[in-house]
Amino acid sequence: MFIMSEDSQRTQGRDAQSSNIMAGKAVAEAVRTTLGPRGMDKMLVDSGGEVVITNDGATILNEMDIEHPAAQMIVEVADSQEEEVGDGTTTAAVIAGNLLGEAEDLIEQDVHATTIVEGYHEASEIALEAIEEQISEEAVDDDVLKQVAESSMTGKGTGGLTAESLAETVVEAIRHVELEGGVARDNVTVHTQIGASSNATELVPGIVIDEEPAHEGMPTDVEDASIAVLDVELGVRTGEIDAEYAIDSIDQLNTALDAEESEVRGYAETVADSGADVVFTTEDVDDRVSNFLANEGILVFENVGSSDAKDIVSATGATRVGALDDLEESDFGAADRVRTDSFGDDELAFVEGGAAAETVTVFVRGGTEHVVDELERAIGDALDVVATALASGEVVPGAGATEIAIADKIREEAAGIEGRKQLAVNAFADALDVVPRTLAANTGQDPIDALVDLRAAHESEGRAGLITSGEEVTIADPFEYGVIDPADVKREAVESATEAATMIARIDDVIAAE
């Protein structure tokens, strides 16, 4: 009797566990060398020749063509970390991979997978307690937020800019969208533009869109702008069906042309009489309408994308109007300034100040596409972690210090756990050592010696991390050097890595259809 298709493949028992664990470890190993301020970059080339150069863990894992289902779970760890807190993706993936490695050793010692899972979950609870103990008692002010942003970007591609200078821009952006009930992170966008040094990166109090005026005679700078957002075609109406009209005389032709001209002028006059200074429409604008409105000094943008129109509405407080006859002054949005600027062959529209200032844009410049792409990723992560730190008000030491503290507490608590589960708890602590060991290896230090020194410094000083300053690497209190991470980044890394590792370790049967 055939229960499954003859073409299906089945792997059971130790072979299934070994295959899954090996796949998970391989994915984690792929991003391990990118960790820390001295982490290396990866060059990813797809089948079409598209090149991505980055050391961002989530980007690397998503760009890799990964097919193994267990390996995909590690990718999901990075995705979850990125979605929840915006940073720490490499840390989460590396911890997950090492939890699997430790689980593999325990399985070879005949420790049952269920025991390992129970031990890992208990250890993760201890880890979360240890993170709580590492939270700084100082208030999270702008100086701390800058340190959080700088710590996030250190080691990432920031072009000619230093992480310190970018950190100021990031904190200013997040403070700009701070509300009484939290941080409106979605109100901060990053817009990239090739063609200048990264030093030209700036914060725009408003939004930036890829649009140019509908007519070259229109103004390029409008102050104290009243803004209309339309879903209206400003041109001659066309029917839904094909039709032909027979014209027998010049008089009939002139009458038709006059009617068309009257219709077009009516659209233009309606817009002009409404009092709008700037018009964004998602539809076409007839050249005659554009010319008339240009003569009236009105700035018009046509064929605006629906998402851009939505952003303009959100930023300026305008109401999106679907019929020109419905346009009223109460539908207008407001901005201190709407201007256009040319960057090489590209022209951009800037909607700044006024109601639009509730949204801010980090306008990123760079000499090449690779530079601006990596800058965009680095700034995006920094914005996320600063928003996270500001919202929670909780930060912990970076540079591997928190992982050293977690592992130390887990080993201390493990002594009170009976049975084989104690082995799994201790293995969890050993897995966390991968973070300081990797940081040490990536700075050219001996990982074992560095780990021993870090443990000794933690025992004597209570807090110890691997601090990199130029070519010098020292063991010290990360808080004193401004190497700081949001507590939520560490919590999410522990929780997501534990969840993935325990899920993979429990699988002892893989059935794959051809």
UniProtKB/TrEMBL annotation:
Q: Give the family, as the similarity comment puts it.
A: Belongs to the TCP-1 chaperonin family.
Species: Haloterrigena alkaliphila
Please name the NCBIfam families in this protein's record. thermosome_alpha, thermosome_beta
Q: Which domain of life is it from?
A: Archaea
Q: Where are the residues of the annotated region Disordered?
A: 1-20
- PROSITE patterns, alphabetized: TCP1_1 (PS00750), TCP1_2 (PS00751), TCP1_3 (PS00995)
Gene Ontology MF terms in the entry: ATP binding; ATP hydrolysis activity; ATP-dependent protein folding chaperone; unfolded protein binding
User: What protein am I looking at?
Assistant: Thermosome subunit
Keywords recorded for this protein, A-Z: ATP-binding, Chaperone, Nucleotide-binding
